[in-house]
Each structure stands twice: as structure tokens, then as C-alpha cells.
Amino acid sequence: MKLFLAPLQGLTNYYYRNIYQDLFEGIDLYYAPFITTSTSFKIGQSAFKDILPENNNNIDIVVPQLLSNDGEGFRKYAKIISEMGYKEINWNLGCPYPTVTKKKRGSGLLPYPDMIRKVLDEACKDTNYNLTVKMRLGLHDPEEGFEVMEVLNDYPISGVMLHARIGKQKYEGTVDLDAFEEQYKICKHDMTYNGDIYSYEDYVKIQSRFPNIDKFMIGRGALMDPFLPSLIKNNGFYIPNEMDKIKELHDRVFSHYENVLSGEKHLLDRMKEFWTYLSVHIDPSGKFLKSIKKSKNKDTYLNIVNKVLNSSFNWRK
Ligand SMILES: Cc1cc2nc3c(=O)[nH]c(=O)nc-3n(C[C@H](O)[C@H](O)[C@H](O)COP(=O)(O)O)c2cc1C
After folding, report:
1. I want to staple 68 with a disulfide (CB 3.0 to 4.6 A). Which of 74, 147, 176, 278 is the partner?
2. Domain 2-233, what architecture?
3. pLDDT (tens digit, 9 = 90+) per residue, 224-237?
């Protein structure tokens, strides 16, 4: 069974992936947040900062992702990426944000199977990389995903990661496992399940409904509990409380942002987003997160978080 860390723009960037790899177990591949392709002749190096080999401790377990709706742009970017040494490139057909979908990108491309075909005609010409597709059930309706799945079946892609929501839901509501099952049944490619695995029990529920799926992608659940992937790999066996690892994760992410961002406000904004996930298990009442969100300077912030990070919180009581 393989576990993949889902890409989360602004959260699972290279420093987070490197630190996570150092401290935690259970993740087999790290999917990097999307890079948007452009049609401009010259491609700036800054677009690739997150996946530059010198920024990533081990590129063999990192998969870059492209957000694109044009085949030529895709190929151009994919060529640069594969020349860096990456073996797999992932295509984002899932992003739900209106600024993206209205340009027919991400899940905004799902209602247009013919456009998807055109991109794949180009993207599949280059055999220097394996192409995988990360998608949602549809933009407005799972019917759209059905048609897309039939298109994908015609191409030599290496796998599909299916987030069991439609784009219009963004991250709200629940996953639609019935629609997932229907699309999974017609998909001829290797299928990875994605969506709302927050605990070992969630994983077991999905795994027992789809016993032939052996690849799972976890995003927010791993950010909320970085021990979750190893718990799943260990069949739910208890892992001793390791608050020191959480402290190290925090301190290294904090120090990265402190070095690269200018001004306390930017630093605190980033850390507040980081804690939106990491506080879920530590702080079910939300009080701790509220006080972090109120902090206006670095010292107050560190005072608040160090109280928790120096405690011996038990992740799985
Ligand atoms: C803040 C945020 C940023 C995301 N960025 C990306 C991205 O860059 N590429 C992508 O394919 N999905 C992105 N996603 C979607 C996740 O990869 C994943 O599909 C989704 O969160 C469902 O999985 P989960 O329930 O395990 O989190 C993002 C999700 C969130 C919440």
C-alpha cells in the first residue's frame, strides 16, 4: 500500500516537505503544489523554485504538478521538469477556485473533455516522464468526470488521483463515495483515492469499501496529525506521543519563514495558517488557535505556542 502527501499550495512547499521527510514516516511520494504554465516564450526560473533539485532533499520521492489548459505549454514546462530528473509529472484537473476555473483550468476544465483530449495529445508525445492526473468528480456534476474518465482511458497515463468531490463544493460538504465508485469502475488506470482521510478509522472505512485500491493521497489529515501516515502504515498501532517532533516541525517551519519573509506580520500570517491545521487535535475547543490568531508580534506568538509545544500532549489518548 502506498501513501501520497497531497499538494497544498502555500503549505506543503519544499521546506515543509523536506522537514516532514526528516521527521515523520509513512509517506511514499510527495506531490508538489501546482506550477501554472504560460504561453510566453521565455519561462522564468522562479516558476520552478519549489521543485529545483537543490531545494529538495530527495527528488526521487517528489512529483511536480502542472496547472495547464494548453498542450504546448504543458510540454514545454514538462520538458524542463523532466530534465531536472523528475520521472513523474502530475496534471491538476482539480483546483476549485473561481479565479482558476473560469479560465478553464483545474476542475474548470472538466466540463470540456475535448480540450482535455487536446492537452493529452501533446502531453503524451513526450515519453521522458510518466503522466498522472489529479482530478475531481466534475466541476458542477459527476457526469462530467465520467466523460473525462473515458477520455483518460484512451491515453497512456500512469495513474489517476481522484478527489471525491465536485469543484463547486470547494472543500465543503462531504465526499461522494458513490460517485467515486462509479468513476473508479470505468477507469482503466491505476486509481488513487483522495479526500477527507483524517484518522486511521477514516482510512479503514475507505479501504474496506474499495479493497482493490492500494494508493491513498492524504492532505489536510496529515497536516493536522503528521503521525497519521505512519499510523496507517502501522495498521493503527499506537505510536508513542512525540511532541518533540511536532516542536521541531514547528521550529523549523518558523525559522524558514523568519529567514525568507520580511516583517513580522507576514511571518505570523503564515504561522497562523500552519496552526489552522496543526491545532485541530491539540485544541478541539479552538481556544488556543484563537489566541494564536490574536497575537500581533513574534514574542507573544512564541509565548503562546511554546506553552503547548513544551507540553506532553498525547495525540491518541
Ligand atoms: C490550502 C489548500 C491548497 C491546495 N493546493 C493544491 C494544489 O496545489 N494542487 C492540487 O492538486 N490540490 C491542491 N489542494 C487539494 C488537495 O491536494 C487535496 O486534493 C484536498 O485537500 C483533498 O484531500 P484531503 O481531504 O486529504 O485534504 C489544496 C487544498 C488546500 C486545502
Report:
1. 74
2. Alpha-Beta Barrel (3.20)
3. 999 999 999 999 98
